Protein 1
Amino acid sequence: MRRTVLPVLGVVLAILAFWYVAAIPMNIREVVTEAERAGASVWGGPATERQGRSAWALAVNNAPIALNGWSQERPRLPAPHQVAQELYQSTIGEEVFSRRGIVQKGEFSNRGLVYHAGVTLGATMVGFLIGAAAGVLLAVGIVHNRAMDMSVMPWAIISQTIPIVALAPMIIVVMNSVGVQGLLPKAVISAYLSFFPVVVGMVKGLRTPDQMQLDLMHTWSASTSERLWKLRLPASVPYLFASLKVAIAASLVGTIVGELPVQRGGLGARMLAGSYYGQTTQIWAALLMAAVLAAFLVWFMGWLERRTLRAMGVPA
Amino acid sequence: MSPDGSTVMANAASFSQTAAPVIDAQGVNLVFQTADGPVQALKDVSLSIPKGEFVSFIGPSGCGKTTFLRCVAALETPTSGTLTVNGMSPDAARRARAYGYVFQAAGLYPWRTIAGNIRLPLEIMGFPRAEQDARVDRVLKLVDLAGFGRKYPWQLSGGMQQRASIARALAFDADILLMDEPFGALDEIVRDRLNEELLNLWARTQKTTLFVTHSIPEAVYLSTKIVVMSPRPGRITDIIDSPLPRERPLDIRESPEFLAVAHRVRGGLRAGHVEV
């Protein structure tokens, strides 16, 4: 326990320290401007002159007020405790103490992060299932059909070179024009990102049985589908889970990107709203929530992998 | 030679004259097209194997012994010549479940238990569930693995894994057993024991067995007929009908008859090399 906790704690503390230090120069210009407006005399001359000075110089020479950068209303880079506070406010604070929260109203507040995380999670799961299924089917096709082997892979690779940020609005607009809205367009974008690792992993996995295994199947006159179900698919399970872990994280990214242009809820919408209104703390809180969600999803896939492999007799 | 053994041999001899051979090869050629040009893997191989024989194929690497076995199993197709298994084409014989094949590696599926592995061909061949269970139990006893059905392959030693793979080949009652260096990856001590067990198994099941090996003592100890082959091109240089009785204790390997056969095999192998 101690051996795992200490290194993790060490890294977290290092990140927090770096973050606090970085927040000082990042916010120093606003801090100095505010102090000047309040009538204090500041180092660095008038505003126009200050623009030419480095952030570190301003911070060091205005040392008495520099730490105000940790407690601004709208910081350029919020300090960790501000993000933590916002995270608390928009989850527990919103749900328990607000009139819109689950305690008062019986449903999650649409201003709270829990609601938005739920929206994102739903679309992520649907997109992940579509993507994983498509990935497995494509891999099965690639392994069994030479034409698919030659043709599908190049397109799959090309599909991943297109920036998803450019493609997402197009998918949403096109699907909207045929009357599909809401969760599905986001799920499609999410599936678009998640099928690829599954295809790559499964093609590799389905091809792991060696010639001897295939010959053995042949001597029993096994059909192609028996070979697939009894040999190739079970043999590919470790590869499947390795790629599913990558795919589910990609799914989450896809969903969030799909939520940016729509603004109908979700962590992506929340992030973009935060940037419209200069609410950096809100962006960071949403980012942190997305990170927690991703960590949970990847952990869940790992748990499922351990369960499945144990059921398949792999020594623990 | 014991009187008992000689009658068995005599019976086998008279039987083979009346009945059609189980495996009959006439002028079989097989040429592989490789990047370096054609390679003659089998040249003019003619051989007929009567029912119930234990035939070993011995020779250096590349002599075509495994290739011939693969032709019998319809895993390769001869370029010319005729090859029949149970009077059928090898492909038809495979579909009629004429043979069980044992490879050098046990090739058990790690995600299936031993019983599950033995059940696999039975599932594919569509045996009813109850019969699958009965057959799995029977062959597990036959190879002395009763009680290990629920273990996974990694929980068994290499020798036990290979026994399980033999059980798998026996499970669907093919009357021909094709074995491609089944004990090649095992150590000498385990190999000796499995040779003895295999001979027992063969005596009990009376299956026609084709056995590929690198080892002269193994070939002489097990076989009623030894086919000596040599490489480039792969061909038969000698066919030796063993004078040894069917009942063979391990110490038969010190007897003069045994040594005489081994000497002849060694001679055949050497002759094959001189010609190249």
Protein 2
Amino acid sequence: MADSEGHGRLARLVGEPRVTGTVSVDRVVSAVASYGMWVLTIGIIVFLWLPLSLIVVLSFMESSVLFPFEGVTLANYVSLFTNSSLLGAARQSAIVATTSASVATLLGVPLGFAIARHTFPGRSMVRGMVILPLLMPGIIMGISLLILYRVIGFSPGFLGTVLAHSVYGLPFIVLPVIARLAVFDRKLEEGARDLGADGRGVLQDVTLPIISPAIAAGFVFAWLRSFEDFIRVFFVGGTMDALTKEMYGMVVYSQGTEAMDPMATLIVVVVASALAVAINLRDILEYV
Amino acid sequence: MSTVQQLGEAFERRGERAKLAIMAGPGVSWLLALILAPTAFLVMVSFAEINSSYDLVWSFSVSNYGDLFVGQSGLFNTPFIDSFLLSIGIAAATTVATVVLAYPVAYLLTRLSGRTFKIVLFAVLVPFFTIFIVRIYSWLAIFGQSGLLNSFLLATGIVSAPVGIFEYGLAAVVISLTHAFFPYMLLTLYSSLEGIDYGVIEASRDLGATRIEIAKDVVVPLSAQGLITGCVFVFVPALGTFITPQFLARGQFTMIAEVLASRINELYALNYAAAGSLFLIIPTLIAFAIVMRTTSLEAMG
């Protein structure tokens, strides 16, 4: 995505008075469109936030519904923090996500470099293959890997899930690296080389620092996708715990449901704070 | 060119190739072993049979496909076909809804800057990063007989009995999917709208085009690429969604992913599930072809 000032470009020009005030109908349309867009946007923000805020409110409620109101409590949080299987599952999911995103990064960064900077037979095919894990429905990945594991006699579990999630996370690393290298000014590398840096020095001191924000953002995405995945781990996770599997069981079999709202609330709060920091630090749209 | 030079160049080429193999090799083998091979294998299994001890028996039988299509009450009258068609309808409705909702917001985002831009961005992105299962779960308390919508309507006396459309079912599934996938559409549309050279819009305005004409003839065609990519990235995952109907349809209907999962979990019918999977693999491949034709990978970061 373009530079951080890019969105100002349209804004500046839209605000300018019109030179040819042809028809008043057009003015009305333009005013309606402008207000309408704001009304709609605010409506959509309410739509996006309504269910999540309700969860936050419900997490402090005595009963699991708003009406009839029965009082405010912290008991749900107590049941969350005493629910060791849920907390253990959350920890396990974090371990899987960290391992998978790390593997995806180790494989994806060099692959991104190879695609962006080298020509080789089958390059366009490889470029295409990279987006497949992104497009392929989770259930297909889950079923196909389950069948493969069964036939080769590999039992589902931690390793099986890490393999699935690392390939799932690969596009989130490779695509930003390719995009970043596409706009990379190679004169910087030439300059470093002219000043006496060797290949390794150029990579370490020039290239990697410039593309590392893209890699870091890719890592976060790959991590999140692994952490939130249910269907892949459902098929290839075997008996391994996972947060999403626990949550699924809580909802579908209505077991220990009171811990669900506080858990969801914690996730919303963590995400919101991390995002607030990220948005204020840099132009994060460059990386999504 | 001397032999020594030729030899030197050959070595250099070999070095280059070896370097390339080290860089691309592991990633490519990951994709081959964990995406392409399993998918090809799945297609093979869809023609296999399962014996009484639940082992796969290699054969070339189309009976799995027969089971999908031929029901007791005739051709194409099977639960699988019903689920497949319903899933397509749900995915299509979700895609249309996200386009209608995301276009104006994406356009507004291109016009904002500074603090307002950051606030609106924050407001739309938090739900995006909140994990999927939480987003779907969050609608559980809103729909249903005793959900927020129905209890509000009952408490205020607007209705005397729970309203069907606010109970678990089709509306709940489509609305929660729209909620869950809206940010995908928004971000792809925003990035393509953001790339439009405003000079083009200005020029058409100077030439006397009205706002509606500009929207119809300039903005939409120029953002078509983002629109197509956005549609693909909403339609395909919506088609294959499993958690959403499990949480919010509450047994009123089953979507295709649920049929496949239940066949594996309850009947161990890998071959049947493999045959059914093809109905998700084919849309994926079509989507893949569309994305490859319309989008450059450099623009997908």
